[in-house]
Amino acid sequence: MKKSRDKFSEKEASYHREQAEDLAQERVHELKQLNESEKDELLSELHIHQIELELQNRELRESQSRLEFVQRQYAELYNEAPVGYASLDQNGLIVRCNNTLATMLGSTPDFIKSRPLVHFISKKDHAVFLGRYRAFVKSPADKFIDVQFHTKNPEQGDGTTFIGRIQGRHITRHESAPQLKNETLLVAISDVTVQKENEDRVQHQAFHDALTGLPNRINLTGHITTALALAGRQNRFGALLFMDIDRFKTVNDSLGHQVGDELLVRFVERLSANLRKQDLLVRLGGDEFVLLLAEQHNDRIQMAKVAKWVAINLIRSLTEPFLVAGHNIQVEISLGISLFPSHDDDTPVDVLRQADTAMYQAKADPSTAIAFFDFDMQERARRRLSLEGQFRIALEKEHFELHYQPQVNLQGEIVALEALIRWHHPDHGLMTPALFIPVAEETGLIVPMGEWVIDAATRQIARWQEQGLCKPEFQVAINISTRQIQENSFATVIEQALKTAAVPAQSVALEITESLLLPNDKRCSVQLHRLSQQGLTFSVDDFGTGYSSLSVLQQAPIGELKIDRRFISGLGSDVQEPRSNLALVRLIISMAKELDMQVVAEGVETLQQLEVLRSLKCDLIQGYLFSKPVSVSHINELLKGGPIIIDER
Ligand code: C2E
Ligand code: MG
Ligand code: MG
User: Fold this and answer.
1) Contacts 24+ apart (CB under 8 A), 274-281
2) Ligand 1 centre distance from Cα of residue 420 (Å)
3) How many other CB atoms are found less than 10 A from the CB of residue 562?
4) Cβ 230 vs Cβ 296: under 8 Å
5) Which residues pair with 371 in a beta bridge?
6) Separation CA 453–CA 459 (nearest Å)
7) Degrees (nearest 5) of the Cα angle 615, 619, 624?
């Protein structure tokens, strides 16, 4: 068969040869027939054709060198690109890589080639990488993998690490040169270590408190949800503790925010040292902290015991005072505990609110620092809320009245009065300030309430002066809350009230608290000085309970100190009196004399107390011994009646 085909080809070839020879003969013959001019024409045609061929050749050479240039450029770009490139084959082996990748991995392209990519990934991230790789290969365009790479060979144990982001795309068939057809995936690896660190920092900041580094409120909700779910699944009880530092605001106000901040940091350190690692301590903000215990129990009582034990331990850890910026600060906390779940459908918000309510209860009860939540408490909290609503109405309708309490000198003569607010409640009758001032302070309603007091008191002073019951130098003291003085308009409100009532500034004393004498609150001190220049005097109420330092007392325009009732109460009774109270009262009186200030003893109830104060030469006495705070008509009688004589029998 092959033979016959060869034969046929030979035949065919000789046939073609013969044909070509015939054609050539024919052409030669034709040429011979041509005249000279026709020959010239043919030659010139041939020449043009030759030139055209040469031009085509040149173009070809040029585009060849252009192509080579572009290829060189591409190779340069590929090698020096700011990201590492690697082409992988179907098995994930690196077929080709650029220099950048080799540098990133602290190696050479030759070393890298034909090794799997995973070889350069830190062992700890192998599982992550392999877990995601299949999905990544399927549709690389919309995925990326962040893993830790190590430079140098891990077996050598040296080198550093970086977080690399692997992105990629499939290599299309028409792109791949025949010799590279095993490349299926092009991956780009960029070093995102810094970016990751920044992301982690932002993430950390979002979920942590900047001052103490503790997790914040956002973190807490998730953890309570988990704890609730765990307790629900296993029929167990958990506990959440809500803590608040007592009188922290006083520390902040009197010693400055920096001291307050440092105290918080040290406080957290102390608490953390007394907690188990699994327990979650969270700063809610300000001086409020929450502790979620990891331990849970099947028995609710057992869980309550554990929570109480933890709470007592925490309180004990605070026995030693904190030394911050040269100040010895004793920290006390109030602690509310909520055991959960209390209902099937408890939410994290419920648990937190219950612990918060219990904390308020602990704070309000001076006999204990720890309180467990019960549903009566919730009822009280609800009542508190309704009180706020009623108080707003009272403000609108002016359901208030001022009572006045005399301040007498050592001869029993009334030389001043203190105005004390009372609320005529439609259901509860006459209410004393302890029942509503805290709500007014919390809600800011103390500001409009305070303005009503200033207005009512100045108008009353004007009336007494008109009636000839008081001389201009007879002072009426008005209590001012810190919140009021923080209002920019405070000085103007006082000035306006005095002007409207036509009362001289010397007839009014403003009672402020020690915490207000902060050295670093410019706004308050500007207002105090402005008013003092106009002749108003300031009196420090409840003196001895705050943190005021001597230098602050000297600088502020203070004319009077009122010794707090708690120091007076034990005076003169041999049995009850802590000796230090007498020493303290003596010290305050002699200090006030040195600073040229007047001293008032508050809450004087017994003759014995009066005797001690007399012997210490206290200037003024205020207390039930002489008179309770009473209505205007009652005061009118007292003012008309001369010195108050105490029956000393
Ligand atoms: P404070 O300014 O220290 O007033 C003295 C409080 O002690 C008054 O209570 C008074 O009734 C009471 N007191 C006086 N003598 C005795 C005594 O011998 N024994 C006892 N046990 N108590 C005595 P009150 O009127 O209930 O006022 C309580 C607090 O409410 C005041 O303490 C003051 O801080 C605040 N407050 C009263 N009125 C106002 C007001 O108009 N504005 C502001 N911001 N606070 C006010
Ligand atoms: Mg007062
Ligand atoms: Mg007082």
Assistant:
1) 274/313, 274/314, 274/317, 275/310, 275/314, 279/310, 280/215, 280/219, 280/220, 280/223, 281/214, 281/215
2) 6
3) 24
4) yes
5) 336
6) 10
7) 90
Per the model's pLDDT, the better-predicted residue between 419 and 183 turns out to be: 419
Residues 475 and 536: their CA atoms lie apart, in Å, by 10
pLDDT digits (tens, 9 = 90+) for 320-360: 999 999 988 999 999 999 999 988 888 999 999 999 999 99
CA of 570 to the centre of ligand 2 (A): 20
Amino acid at 302: Q
> Sign of the CA dihedral 363, 368, 369, 370?
negative
pLDDT at position 575 is: 57
The answer to whether 96 touches 183, Cβ cutoff 8 Å, is yes
According to DSSP, the residues that pair with 322 across neighbouring strands are 329
Mean pLDDT for the stretch of residues 453-474: 97
Instruction: Answer yes or no: are the C-beta atoms of 568 and 585 closer than 8 Å.
Output: yes
Joined together, the tokens standing for residue 74 give: 């591409």
**Range of weakest confidence among 92-101, 112-121, 359-368, 486-495:** 359-368
Burial-class residue 304 by CB neighbours within 10 Å (0-12, 13-18, 19+). middle
Ligand nearest, relative to CA of residue 420: 1
Counting ligands in written order, which one lies closest to the CA of residue 477? 2
Binned at pLDDT 50, 70 and 90, residue 556 comes out as confident
Give the pTM: 0.55
pLDDT at 535: 93
- Closest ligand to Cα 441: 1
Instruction: Report the Cα–Cα distance between both ends of the chain, in Å, rounded.
Output: 156
Ligand 1 is surrounded, with C-beta below 6 A, by 405, 420-421, 432-434, 437, 446, 450, 453, 479-481, 511, 541-542, 565, 602-605, 622-624, 629
Alpha carbon of 298 to ligand 2 centroid (Å): 51
The string of pLDDT tens digits covering residues 228-263 is: 999 999 999 999 999 999 889 888 888 889 999 999
**What secondary structure letter does DSSP report for 287?**
T
